[in-house]
Amino acid sequence: MARTILSRYLDPDVLSRIAGRRIEPRGLVIGNLAGAHKSPLSGFAVEFAGHREYVWGDDPKHIDWRVYYKRHRYFVKQYEMETNLVCHFVLDISASMRYGDGRQQKLTYASQMIAALGYAVLRQSDKVSLATFDEQVRGVVPPSNAMPQIIRMTELLDQSKPVDKTRMPECLMELVGRMRRREIIMIFSDFFTDLERLEAALQLMRYHRHEVVLFQIMHHDELAFDFDGMTKFVGLEIPDELLAQPTQIRRAYLRAVERFNNRLDDIAQRNRVERVLVDTSRDMGTVLVDYLNQRARLHRRR
Length: 302
What we know:
The protein has ten helices and ten strands. It is of the alpha/beta class. It folds into two domains: 2-29 and 84-301, von Willebrand factor, type A domain (Rossmann fold, 3-Layer(aba) Sandwich); 47-80, no CATH class. The strands form three sheets. Strands 5-4-3-6-7-10 form a six-stranded mixed sheet, sandwiched between helices. Strands 1-2 form a two-stranded antiparallel ribbon. Helix 1 (2-9) packs across helix 5, helix 2 runs parallel beside helix 10 (284-301) and helix 6 (168-176) runs parallel beside helix 7 (195-207). The radius of gyration is 23 Å and the shape is elongated. It has helices at residues 2-9, 12-18, 65-71, 106-123, 149-159, 168-176, 195-207, 220-224, 246-270, 284-301, and strands at 47-53, 75-80, 86-92, 127-133, 137-144, 184-189, 211-218, 231-234, 241-244, 274-279. Helix content is 40%, strand content 21%.
């Protein structure tokens, strides 16, 4: 059963194309595993491991004075180096993500992107988690760096049903309240929500110094509006219908989409949040390779 679910979300061709590419944090990270990322700590970290006797040259601030008063000898505290990355995937499973067919459906495309990126992070021995939401947080897979984590994630993805409206800002604020330290948060959505309230949620994430990436998942129809002939448009989250000739409303629609995307982009730039617009008609392997190459170039410039 697990193997069947995995095959729906992990494409061997996509995995082979992103193999060997690392997801590096933009800033310093603190975790509870020995990882490959630069630590903000010099020789000492935050998880206590034991004592050793003081030797000349040790920093006196690490002396354990309680031990000294008991044994009248100097000992310093030792710690485990903590330099791993934790990547949280957050997926919008509201009804608007239902648009599209097959692999180009927005929810399916986003789910497969998460599975591929999650597998890549696990391969580099870092932690991943997954949360899904619509009007409320629907499911959470807590962080882990064990390879069976990808099975737990795809099982949750497979259970996700896009039928309800979204309350994205409230759900994001609830989720960020569970994150205790600087981590990477990757949000997958079309972001059809109240952008002012979304900005407040993003500001909270940035206040806690998380790195935030917005993957804006859009179907090609939504971006190009290539419809011909009289068409009935049906709302997925509101019970409205519109019978119209696409050529008569295309220009106004595209202007509205451009304004919306410009507002989202302004919010992202204002809050130092990365925004990645994804057209589900594009080859996923190409999308991921382009994104990971861009991250790698920015990481080298730091």
